[in-house]
Amino acid sequence: MNGRQIADAARESRPELRVLFVTGYAEKAVLNHGHLETGMQILTKPFQMDQLGRKVRELIEQ
Fold it and tell me: What's phi and psi for 45, nearest 5 deg?
């Protein structure tokens, strides 16, 4: 399973679960038909620690 498949499986039992994908691959590698579901964010490598912090805060505040 890839990360997106794991996230989708986890959200079947916990639909409110928030997910942050961190990837070194192109964004489309984790997109499902070109989009992310509500409560999902993506952060591509390389990134700065403040960028990670912002993404986590965005997910918490959703």
Answer: -80, 150
Alpha carbon distances (Å) from 28 to 8, 14, 20: 16, 24, 14
DSSP state of 16: T
Closest by CA position to 24, among listed 52, 46, 55, 3: 46
User: How high is the pLDDT of residue 53?
Assistant: 97
**pLDDT 10s digits, 17-41:** 999 999 887 666 666 666 788 999 9
User: What is the pTM for the complete model shown?
Assistant: 0.80
3-class secondary structure, 14: coil
The closest of 24, 44, 32 to 52, measured between CA atoms, is 44
